[in-house]
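Technical appendix A lists one of the benchmark inputs used to test multi-chain prediction within the project. The record comprises two sequence entries:
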Amino acid sequence: MSMTRAACGMLCALSITLAAGARAADPKPADPKPAAKKLKACFIYVGPVGDLGWSNAHDEARRLAEKALPGLETQFVEAVPEAQGLPVIDRLVKSGCKVVFTTSFGYMDHTVEAAKKYPDVVFAHATGFKRAPNLATYMADFYQVYYLNGLMAGALTKSGKVGYVAAFPIPELKRHISAFALGVTAARPGAVVNVKWINSWFSPQKAREAAEALMVEGNDVLAFTEDTATVVQVAARKKVPSFSHYSPMHRFAPDFVVSGQLVHWEKIYIDFLGKVQSGAYAAGKLKDVDYWWLLREGAVELGAQPGMAINPKHVDALKKAQMTVGGKQVPVHDRVMELLKDMSSPDPKFDPFTGPLKDRNGAERVPAGRRMSVEELNSMQWVAPGVMGPVADEPK
Amino acid sequence: MTQELLAAVVRALSLGAPLLLAALGAIVNERAGVVNLGIEGMMALGALAAFAVAVEGNSAALAIAAALAVGTAAALVHAVVTLTVVANSYVSGLALAMLGAGVAGLLGRRYEGIPLLDPVTEEPFLVAAGLLAVGLWGFFQFTRPGLVLRSVGESPAAADALGVRVMAVRYGAVAFGGALSGLAGAFLSLAYRPAWTDGMTGGMGWIAVALVIFVGWHPLRAVLGSTFFGLLYYLQFRLQDQGRIPVEVFGAMPYLLVIAALAVSGLRKARGSAPAALGVPYRRGER
């Protein structure tokens, strides 16, 4: 009996150690470079770094920042459950981190607490809205890119139905799906965006079945928010064009991916850490530091692969497709490139969320001539006309 | 309408295939009296092995062989722990589920984000799963080895007295269960969604565990059960905008049905169709 117990005990312990080893802490000290100003920045990721999604993109950015900034040393802890934020921050601060990035919305309250506890450490929290003298916030947002993808989706749909596999009905997704739908209906008046919610950031099975259901219902172009390339692969099997999300997914379906959205967190990290090194940012100076970076700052990019805004295989179709802009017929391709150039310029003339805008129930949301503020975009609960299907927490 | 129905059946079979394969494997080891809750872990290992071999070796046959082998090997660990060391099989199975998923996640890092450009078609898996179900039914129903396997699950002491090598049969049954879990994983990473991602089995192993109970350890009923579970999964998305039934009901249905099935057999004051010696370790000479 004792042997039984010992064996079980060993096996259980082994399994827990191994499982933890696979997912949890894997701190990797970088070699310190001979540098002007030494600085140790640490990153907390909610997922594993190999997930081809959210955390992976932050880790790529961390490495690029380390290359770009001499004297910068970085460390990261991956797969940290959101409720474990504070203990991990404690550990990182003890190990000498002077800057701590918490890269998921769910770390918000723990980061606020940590900022109080360690007033000399600089904190920055991604996607949140709570700041402190030593706590900044930052976000790279896709809504402009979604509008451009919507234009292309509207141009390519034959049935007038575009499918969207969506993670959670939160403001971020409502903003993105609305921008996408505004694009779709601008290129193809009367077209609709059918949304299926999978209530998960990561679920290949749900993403596939939702995509299959959308295709059965006659949607002939697909877009999505989920952390794998499942939708892209499933669409390609039925020869349906799709738009990739977040990570480079062109290689998963080189013939059928049209475009998509890509993130460049390194633009924010390099800027922020550069300013910490120079002393422009320090604990006590961050109360109003909120990065809301878009195409203009290069924090996001149009495309399914860096450097390729539109898959060349779809350029001809997009040049043939016409849309009406200010009473004139323009090829959709040219409109996309024109707006991309404009929104990437220092002073964009165009913004998808410029009034007059009504929600899908007909209520006016943005008066003529006004643009939505960052705050409004961040708390958006309504959705744009053209979005079909149930949407939780929608104002009546 | 016909098209709609056809599409639903295709989805049900496609998502049902990995459930069916894993459940058939579990039916075999449970009919021999050994519980193995580690399906999720063996599936993950099988999925990774298949994908890695498919990418490196470019051969679907080798990839499937690798998944079968890795599933078997993982199950044999469970067999040693539960049969030879005689540790608690539920704990060992849980450990295997976590261990398998963790190890697959760790070893699979270099395969993240790589597409399988030449995916395997799903149909051969569906046909194989169907044939296996019929074959296993015939095996249990009409063959002497099938009878021997069941006797080991019902009354190992009696089987032992009749000269059956209980240990050998149980080892074989557990290995077979592992192989089929591995095959279910191969289906996921080669055909269903041709890529490897940590966590891609997404709880399907646990649904398979539930399915075995739901279908009363019967291979043919497992075909219907897996298809039904597959259909429910698909319908939670297909019926999402119809607004009549909250779709969460469909997602939770497999578990609700299993609880219902357990309750019904409990009310009947019977163990249902569960093998009498399921989960009971056997040591010769002990009562």
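The domain at 2-267 of chain B is CATH 1.10.3470 (ABC transporter involved in vitamin B12 uptake, BtuC). Chain B has a mean pLDDT of 92. Comparable benchmark entries are summarised in Table A2.
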